[in-house]
Amino acid sequence: MKTKYLIPIVLGLALSTQSCEDFLDTKPAAIYSQDLVWGSAANVEAFVMGRYSTAMQWYRDAPTWDRTFSNNMVNCRAACPGEARGLMENTYNIGLNDRFGFIRSCNMIIEKCADSEVLAPSDRTQFVALGKLMRAMCYYDFARKTGKFIWVDDVLSSDDPDFNLPLTQSIEESYAYVLKDLREAVPDLPTSQPAGAPDQNFGYAFLSEVLLTAAAYTNDAASLQVNGKSLYQEAIDAVDAISGASLDPDYESIFNENGAYSSPEIILAQYWDKQYTQCQNTYMINLISNVVNSNLELNGCSPLWTVDDIFECWLDYTPSQNLVDDYLVIDEQDGKAKRWFETSQWLENTTEINQTQAFQMIEHKDDDQVYKAYKLNDENSEVSISDLMYNGRDARFDASILRDGSQFYGQTIAMINHGNMTRWSGSNYGANHIPLTNYATRKTIYTNMSPRPFYNTQTDWHSVITRYGRALLNKAEALLRLNKVSEAVAVFNQTRTIHGKLPASTASTLADAWADYKIERRVELFWECDWYFSLLRWGKYGGPANDGKAPSAVIDELTEPATFIEINRDRNAAFVGYVQFQNNQRTFDTRSYLFPIPQSLINANSAISGKDQNPGWE
């Protein structure tokens, strides 16, 4: 069990603000003297701990990767992001030139702790390892985005003659630095830490994912291997080295208050205490709808909430039908897991209809375009179309998504024509925080906010950075890359059966195993900053990992328009529609396997020129 952990904030801020007189930051601002920071063991620990939050922020920015770059989530108050429509230019900046203060802090930890006279020998070793781990976390985020970066591994001083340092020359060189840091750090990391602090288990889990990406972008380069061992095998070994963690059968609790400190699955999370945190300081504020009773009455929506205005937050993004389709359903006849529209209970009780027929049965908006539509064969059946669609689903579905019939905060959610939490709940698109897809998010939402979820309600909160389920899926992927199909299927079946409560996959071919694995990873790691980067990795692999295409080909999942569900009031007909607002313009250019080196960096640094730009961004 993890104990509650609060990061000291006094000396944690020391040396964090850097001078900007040079291209690279070279000296600390005089908040505290270096003698004070490095002069006592307690202050050294506080300084190291103060870096944790920064290191974790690049791995918890779910809105960027699930909403901006993929169709897992849909913008409810803005058009499809330009990034998903191929509108980025080489001026796009993912932060390649604004992290040198943090990198300098890591370098100071490594340098100062190695020779510290105030630390015990074991503490010196662990703090140096933590410095290298955090430096690797920063640089890996660069490597997976831009491939190349400016490597700085010592504490620059103002006496150094030139602060305009070059980029690494290749992706291989970049990963050589990151992997060297991790390989040196992980064995020396603490084996036990309070909740919120990285330990050796996190090091192994993180290393496994870095190895997958490094192998994907370098074709498992021999230069990155240790003693000829494939990076994929090293990733497997890293996951196998994790100790004491296990899958939590209560998937939902991993992400809310019930399992925040007790889940055996959480390897690393970031925690916020309610004494200092309001709902508006968390992602929850943008995941909960604003559907107050007065607006429901104004727009002819029902049923009204039994607690007036219980849901009055600032929902900005909502799950797509594309995502929902991958939460499999157990077929009532053969017991196999299938997509909802492929099950026997669906096929035997519904008929597919066209748009004209659908619009005769289902209230719609003027610009709606139908992708698929269905009606019950027996319109008076006691089994509704919602029942056929949602019953028997992967258990992670109701733990992650609010849908028609969900129970949430003691309320019954109606996501039908003019239901109480739908795209009909507001007067017009963009003016209200309402679910454009007729779904909302449950995952990561705390269920004990009192008296209700509201912007200024005090609440604890945590964001999972990584967990054992994710590490297991990394292992399964590495096994697939080594063509060890049966072993890979056995590994990803652990999350599928324990978290999803689904029958095990029986895939026996590499293609079938990849198909099941991709679905498994999508639903297991929804809203955990994974889907977009996994798609890039699989596209780099090519073959069965990307629909049989050559390595580095177009990724179809990034070109699919986002879709929504519309269920009529009688729950005897439904259609899947295309989300409007430029969602049909989603595209993926193969240059987007890497982000551009920002032009501002090229212009500001004499050691970098246009020839260093990533292909396609010139």
Q: What report would you give on this structure?
A:
It is a single chain. This protein has helices at residues 34-38, 41-49, 52-57, 62-68, 100-114, 121-146, 171-185, 200-218, 231-240, 293-298, 321-324, 344-349, 355-361, 385-390, 395-400, 468-481, 485-498, 510-524, 531-541, 599-604, and strands at 73-75, 266-272, 317-319, 329-330, 337-338, 350-353, 370-376, 401-402, 407-408, 411-412, 440-441, 461-467, 563-567, 573-578. It has 20 helices and 14 strands. The chain is an alpha+beta fold and 618 residues long. The chain starts with 33 loop residues before the first helix and ends in a 14-residue tail after the last helix. The longest helix is centred in the first third of the chain and has 26 residues, at 121-146.
For the biggest sheet, the summary is: 4 strands, antiparallel
Poorly predicted segments: 1-31
Total strand segments: 14
Helix run count: 20
Query: What general outline do the C-alpha atoms trace?
Result: globular
Strand order of the largest sheet: 6-7-14-13
Class inferred from helices and paired strands:
alpha+beta
Report the average pLDDT across residues: 92
Helix content: 25-40%
The value of Rg in angstroms is 25 Å
Head-to-tail CA distance between termini: 51 Å
Give the amount of beta strand, in percent: 5-15%
